[in-house]
Design a protein that fits this description.
This protein has about 180 residues and is α/β, with parallel strands linked by helices. It has five helices and six strands; from the N terminus they run E-H-H-E-E-H-E-H-E-H-E. The chain has one domain: Isochorismatase-like (Rossmann fold, 3-Layer(aba) Sandwich).
C-alpha cells in the first residue's frame, strides 16, 4: 500500500503557547524524524494547517497561524488548509491522497481529542488504513482530564474502533516503517 505521513496543526500559536502542549518538544522531534524517514523512502509528507476565524489565534497570515518554526519541511512536502476539526471536510485532502495513490496514512500532530481523533475516524471511514503514531500527537491539559490521560485514552480508544477491513493501529514512532 502506498503510504503518506500527515502532520496536523503543528502551528506556532498552539505549540509556542504558555503552557505548551504535553511533551511538545519531544513530539516535534518525533514528527521531524518521521518526516525525514518518510522523505527518504519517497513517502509523501502532508502538513495540515488550520485556518481560524478572523481575530482568532489561528487567523490566516497571523504569527500563531504559521507552521511551527521548528518543523523541518521538505521542498516536496504538501500543504492542505482546513477550517474544521475534520481535515477532509471541504478540503483537497481526499482528492490529493487519491491522486497520489495513497492507501495507508500515518497520523501525527495536534490536538489529540479534536483534530487527530476526527481525522483518524474520518480517514478510516473513507477506507484508508490508518496508523496513529501514538507518541507523535499531543494536546494540553483540559478541565476534565490531563493531556497525558487524553493521549492514553485516545491511543487505546482509536485502536478499538471496529473497522473490519482495515483496523486502526497505534504505533510508536520507532515502530513506523515507511516503504515507497
Amino acid at each position: 500500500m502506498k503510504q503518506a505521513l500527515l502532520i496536523v496543526d503543528v502551528q506556532a500559536g498552539l505549540f509556542l503557547a504558555d503552557p505548551p502542549p504535553h511533551q511538545a518538544e519531544a513530539v516535534l522531534e518525533r514528527i521531524n524524524d518521521l518526516a525525514g524517514r518518510a522523505r527518504a523512502a519517497a513517502v509523501p509528507v502532508l502538513y495540515i494547517q488550520h485556518d481560524g476565524e478572523p481575530g482568532s489565534l489561528l487567523e490566516p497570515d497571523s504569527l500563531g497561524w504559521q507552521l511551527h518554526p521548528g518543523l523541518q519541511r521538505g521542498a516536496g512536502d504538501w500543504l492542505v488548509h482546513k477550517t474544521a476539526s475534520d481535515a477532509f471536510q471541504g478540503t483537497e485532502l481526499a482528492p490529493l491522497l487519491r491522486r497520489l495513490g495513497v492507501e495507508e496514512l500515518f497520523v501525527s500532530g495536534y490536538a489529540t481529542e479534536f483534530c487527530i481523533d476526527t481525522l483518524v475516524r474520518r480517514a478510516a471511514s473513507e477506507g484508508f488504513a490508518v496508523r496513529l503514531v501514538g507518541d507523535a500527537h499531543t494536546t494540553k491539559d483540559r478541565p476534565v482530564l490531563s493531556a497525558e490521560q487524553i493521549i492514553a485514552h485516545h491511543n487505546w480508544l482509536l485502536a478499538q474502533l471496529i473497522q473490519p477491513q482495515r483496523p486502526v493501529q497505534v504505533l510508536s514512532a520507532q515502530q513506523v516503517q515507511f516503504s515507497a
